[in-house]
Structures are given as C-alpha cells and as structure tokens.
Amino acid sequence: MKEPTLTRMQESVSSLKKDFIEWSDALSVGVEEVDQQHKGLAQMVNELNGAIHGGWGKETRDDIIVKLLEYTRVHFATEESLMSISNYPHLKEHKKQHENLIDIVKAYVKKYNENPEASNYEFLFFLKRWLVEHIMKDDKLMGEYLIKTGSVKTKKPTSWWGGLRKPFGH
Question: Which residue from 28, 95, 123, 149 puts its CA 20 to 30 A from 8's CA?
Fold first, then answer.
C-alpha cells in the first residue's frame, strides 16, 4: 500500500468539503419556508454523507438518520398543511409520495439494524435522487400553485433594483 502523499491527502480533504447535494436557485420552489426546510434537508443528507465518508461509525450514522427522519416529518407536515389550506388539487398524490419515502427510510433503518455492515451508499444515493427529483418536479408544481393562488407570499426581490422599486410604490 502506498503512503498517502500530501497531494492525495489534500484532494481527499477537498472532496469532503464539496457538498453531496449542492443547493442552488434551481432547487427553489419560490416559497421561503419550504425552501429553507429543503436547504435543511439537503444539509442533513450532506452531514450523513460526511459521516459515511469519514467513517464516523454506526451510532453517528443512526443519530443523523433519526434526526433526518424527524425533520422530514416536520417538513412534510408543513407542505401538506400549505397544500390543504390552499386546496391544492394534487394533495393526495403528493402526500402518498411523502408516506412512501418515510416507509422506505424505515426499511433502510431496519436493514441497518439487522446488518450494521450493509452499504450506506445505496441509501445515500437514493436520498439524494429522491430529494432532488421530488423538489424539481412535485414541489415546484406545488410552489407554483401556492404562489399563483396567493396562498403564500413570494420571496422578496433579490436584486437591488427590485428592492428600490417597492418603497416608491412600483
């Protein structure tokens, strides 16, 4: 086995610094509370990735998964409340997707409890794919509906010009 060179060690550290799920405006659904929660979910998946790659052990992995599961439930309750209040026409299907994810995560937890040596990467990549696809497809539709129906306030203007126009009544 080769000794790690400084270059290889730096490359390894730099690859750990890069987020597994990188947040961008492309993932925004336009609803501030939902976007903030999505950022939190992405950060927890990134934390899980760090734990797995860093070899932090089963206990740490399990703690992160429990925290992720609880936060996910809170997030889903937020979305489902917004959809219910606004009479979102796809609430039933959207809620079913949420329930399916919770069931899948519970199955992974059971798998890890039965076999602590089971691969974490399958779960990690599943979470990333599910979260990004769900946000890009289903949550964006929900966000558009909530904004179109006036059920939520849109984000504040991000440009300095947009911020200037508001005080002058434009």
Answer: 123
- Distance from the Cα of residue 89 to its chain's centroid: 23
Q: Domains in the chain, please, with CATH? A: 31-151 (1.20.120.50)
22: nearest Cα among 57, 49, 52, 58: 49
Residue 164 has pLDDT above 70, yes or no: no
Residue with tokens 């904004």: 147
pTM of the predicted structure, to 2 decimals: 0.79
Tokens of 30: 């336009």
Q: Any residues with CB less than 8 A from the CB of 43 and at least 6 apart, and which?
A: none
Amino acid at 135: I
DSSP at 100: H
Angle between helices 121-134 and 32-53 (to 10 degrees): 160
Is the sign of the CA dihedral 91, 97, 100, 101 positive or negative?
negative
Q: How far apart are CA 123 and CA 94, in angstroms?
A: 22
Where helices occur in the chain by DSSP H, the ranges are 6-17, 32-53, 58-85, 91-114, 121-134, 140-148, 160-165
Neighbouring C-beta atoms of residue 13, cutoff 10 Å: 9
The predicted pLDDT at position 163 comes to 47
